[in-house]
Each structure stands twice: as structure tokens, then as C-alpha cells.
Design brief:
The complex is a heterodimer of chains A (334) and B (147). With 334 residues, chain A is α/β, with parallel strands linked by helices. Chain A is 34% helix and 22% strand. In chain B, helix 2 crosses helix 3, helix 3 packs parallel to helix 6 and helix 6 packs antiparallel against helix 7. The chains are: A alpha/beta (334), B mainly alpha (147).
């Protein structure tokens, strides 16, 4: 059977003109703590509930991005946003008061890349002058929706990942300044037969391999052509699996690979097991750290591959697997 | 994909680190044992205070449940549990924690649809099957007394 190859989109007129990031306490204690725009150290920021807090994180991340670009809501054309909560609560409630045309998106932890490639496409096509991509995750709201109450004494397995309390927002407009979106490859849903709720890295590694492989093939590029291939939140297990999958093709990806889930926390000192995860993990790492370094030229060419576990607790309880997805966005300095 | 799902599953197993049993089992033994020792101390104390064996047992359970609820409320129980594992899960204190933690967590959705409805979300199955098992046991016991 012939396998769908998909397309890699080429952009000629999409620039990430500004970006903002907001993180919680645990993330601010991580190695990149001083690179984020704002730290909400009580993880609630004055909100009454965790869901309201997550909405606030998105609101603040977008506000930071808009302020840096000198944009007011009246001048915003479109927002793509999503998060992990049912009905994309963080996005809809967090961004409603901007009163800007809004498209909710869901790709689990791959959402930020999905938003970025869509925002780039809308700008590149000329439909809008600017478009924002926003996503968030919150440890506490994710735990109560997907796992257990916060104060329940259940033990996390070594393969479990820590949902980042974080949000990132980026605004894309016509070519102005770096970072530029050069290309993007939309991921395919990959069901690798993994059903362990505590091993999301394993569920997503196959999707990351597929998307990266296709992107490199379509671009005629190799891992060494990039300053970094940055996956979203494969964590320790998923990253090792990704290396093994590439090793089978004779490619040593580990030399060029970074994973936001492995970077955002200090895994020696912070009890986060296999690393960070969540839509906010790679969104905040991109908007707090990587985009800045592409903008100033430290990084010339990166491939951002946000990975998502399209996990439904209901389907898993019914005996289903956890499909994964990964979207790639190539971002360059010039 | 350059790999079958079966091979992929084997790869996942190979690279996934297992729990370190050399660490988890002794900690579960020590902390679980400490909770049980506290229970014994309470039992002796209540007996010394003149309570009957039955009453002292009930008071001991109530005291442990109270302490567990208190520690859960102070956000300490789950922290101890991260180290203790089954040591805090298995004793009656773990059961109390499994009821108090959702009660606290879902209070934000109101006292009826939140706290009330979600309180037994973890402990519920234990109650359902525990009570069912005791009924089955009771029936068997009753039949046995007839013979």
C-alpha cells in the first residue's frame, strides 16, 4: 500500500514578530527560569481555580507578545489557540476578553506548533496581516482532569512526565525581522500500540520520527543542517526511542536533538521523572528561549517539532491505545 | 514507519526505566511500618485509658483517619507518599487520603456536584467491591453455620 507522504508547506512571507511566555513556580526554578517574561509563583495568580489560572496564563502570555509588538486587540486579525483541557477551556476563557477573531485548535502538546504553522499560513496567504498562536498547560488543571487530585498520595512511575504550568504566545506577521517561518510539515496520527497513561513519551516518539523524516526528505536537508531539532515533550523515554528509530536509518539524531521536556526542568534536583510535558512546555521554551536565539542569530536554523499524545482517558479505559502526533515548523534567522 | 508496533512496544519496554525496588520496598516497609506502629501505640494508649478492646480499636482507626485527613489538608500526605509508596497507600490512612483529596480538589465545582459527587471517585470502587465481597463472605459463612 502506498503511504501518504503529505506536503511540506514553504513560507515566503511569515515572520514571528513577537513572543511572550509565562510560567509557574516549578518552571521558574528550572534552568531557563530567568528567560521567561513573567513568573506566577503561586501558580494561581489570584484566580480562584486552576482552570481560571490556566486561562490567566494564556491571557498574560498573549498580552506580553502584543505589548512587544506594539499591538492592541483592535489591530489583531486572528488567534489560533488551544490547550489540554476539555473544551479548550484555557484558551476560550482566557482569550475571550481580547474580542479578536478566534479559532480554537487541539493537538494535545503539539498545539503550539499547529498554531504557529496555521498562523504562518494565514499570514503568508495574505488573508490576515497578523495572527497569533497561543497555547498553555497547567500542572494542577491537567492532573485533576487526566489523573488524580493533587493531594492524593499516588506514586508517579519513572516514565511519567510533569505537565508544565506555562503558556507561550507568538505573533506572526508579514516579513519584518527574524525569526522567519520557512517551512512546516503537518503530522499524521500515529498509533504505535502504546496504552500506558504514564508513558506519553513512548506514545509520541513514533509520530516525531515520521514527521521529522518526512520534513527532512521534502526539504532535502539532513539533521546536521540544523542548529537544533527541538522536540516538544518526548522526555527521556521518548527521546531515547526517537534516537533508536533514527539509528535504524543510520542517522545519529542525538547529536542535533534537544527536547523541551528535558530542558525545562533540572531533572537532577526537581522531581519531574521523565521530564516536562504539556502544551505550555514547548510553547514557553520556544517563546522564552529558542525564538530569542534565532532572532539574535545564535541559532540560524531550527526545526521545532511539537509532539502530542492524543490521549483520551475514556478510550484508554475502553482498551484503546494512545495515538501520537507531531507537527514540524522550520524557523530560520534569514 | 520503519518499525512494527510489536517491535516498537518492545523498544518502549527496553528504554523505560523501571521503579527502583531496592529503594521503594524498604521505604514502603519503613514508613508503612511506622504508621502501623503509631496505630499500635494508639491502641495501647486507649486500652490503658480504660477503653474496651473493641472501642480502643475503633478509636485507633478514627485517630489514624483524622491524622491522615489533617496531613492531606496540609498538603503533606502526598509528599510523604512520594517516598513511601505503598507504605502510605495500604494502611487505613491511604484510604482516608483517597477520600479527602478529591473532596478538597473538587470543592471548586460546589459542595453538591463537586465535593459530594467526586468524593468517592477513587475510594468508590474499594467500597463497592469491599462491601460486595463481605456480603458474599457473609452468605458463605451463613450457609456454613447451617451445615
Amino acid at each position: 500500500m502506498a503511504i501518504c507522504e503529505g506536503k511540506t508547506f514553504r513560507y515566503s512571507n511569515a515572520s514571528i514578530i513577537s513572543y511572550g511566555s509565562v510560567v509557574g513556580k516549578v518552571e521558574s526554578d528550572g534552568p531557563f527560569g530567568d528567560e521567561f517574561d513573567e513568573i506566577i509563583s503561586d501558580n494561581k495568580g489570584g484566580a480562584d481555580t486552576w482552570e481560571q489560572a490556566e486561562a490567566l496564563f494564556q491571557q498574560k502570555a498573549l498580552k506580553h507578545a502584543m505589548e512587544k509588538a506594539g499591538l492592541v486587540p483592535e489591530k489583531m486579525d486572528l488567534i489560533f489557540a488551544g490547550d489540554l483541557l476539555n473544551q479548550c477551556t484555557g484558551s476560550s476563557y482566557g482569550l475571550k476578553d481580547f474580542y479578536v477573531p478566534f479559532l480554537g485548535i487541539y493537538g494535545a502538546c503539539s498545539t503550539f506548533a499547529e498554531g504557529l504553522l496555521l498562523a504562518g499560513a494565514m499570514v503568508n496567504a495574505g488573508y490576515v496581516d497578523n495572527a497569533a498562536a497561543v497555547s498553555s498547560s497547567h500542572f494542577s488543571s491537567a492532573e485533576r482532569q487526566f489523573r488524580f487530585p493533587l493531594n492524593y498520595g499516588g506514586v508517579r512511575t519513572p516514565t511519567a512526565q510533569w505537565t508544565a504550568t506555562a503558556s507561550g504566545a507568538a505573533i506572526v506577521a508579514a516579513n519584518q525581522k527574524p525569526p522567519f517561518i520557512k517551512a512546516a510539515t503537518v503530522g499524521k496520527i500515529q498509533d504505535m500500540g502504546i496504552s500506558d497513561l504514564n508513558n506519553m513519551g513512548a506514545a509520541m516518539a513514533g509520530a516525531a520520527y515520521d514527521t521529522i523524516s518526512r520534513h527532512l526528505k521534502h526539504m532535502g536537508s539532513h539533521p546536521e543542517d540544523y542548529d537544533a531539532i527541538i522536540t516538544g515533550d518526548l522526555g527521556e523515554v521518548g527521546s531515547n526511542m526517537l534516537y533508536e528509530l533514527f539509528r535504524r536509518d543510520g542517522v545519529a539524531l542525538e547529536q542535533h536533538h534537544k527536547d523541551c521536556g528535558l530542558l525545562i526542568y533540572d531533572r537532577e534536583k526537581q522531581d519531574v521523572h521523565a521530564g516536562g510535558s504539556g502544551c505550555g512546555c514547548s510553547a514557553s521554551m520556544m517563546c522564552g528561549h529558542f525564538l530569542k536565539h534565532v532572532e539574535n542569530g545564535d541559532l540560524k536554523r531550527i526545526l521545532y517539532v511539537a509532539t502530542g499524545a492524543l490521549m483520551s482517558p475514556t478510550m484508554v479505559q475502553q482498551g484503546g491505545n494512545i495515538p501520537g502526533i507531531a507537527h514540524a515548523v522550520e524557523i530560520v534567522n534569514r | 514507519m520503519n518499525i512494527s508496533n510489536q517491535e516498537y512496544g518492545e523498544l518502549a519496554k527496553r528504554v523505560s526505566p523501571p521503579s527502583s525496588m531496592a529503594k521503594t520496598i524498604p521505604m514502603a516497609f519503613l514508613i508503612g511500618g511506622a504508621i502501623c506502629t503509631l496505630g499500635e501505640a494508639l491502641l495501647n494508649m486507649y486500652t490503658a485509658l480504660g477503653f474496651s478492646q473493641d472501642d480502643a480499636g475503633a478509636l485507633t482507626s478514627m485517630s489514624l483517619i483524622f491524622l491522615s485527613a489533617l496531613f492531606t489538608g496540609f498538603k503533606l500526605y502526598d509528599r510523604i507518599a512520594q517516598v513511601a509508596g505503598a507504605g502510605t497507600l495500604v494502611p487505613i490512612t491511604g484510604f482516608a487520603n483517597s477520600i479527602v483529596s478529591p473532596a478538597l480538589e473538587f470543592k471548586s465545582e460546589g459542595y453538591v456536584l463537586g465535593l459530594g459527587a467526586k468524593m468517592f471517585v477513587i475510594a468508590g470502587p474499594v467500597l463497592v467491591y469491599g462491601i460486595s465481597a463481605s456480603i458474599v463472605y457473609g452468605i458463605i459463612y451463613y450457609i456454613q453455620t447451617l451445615l
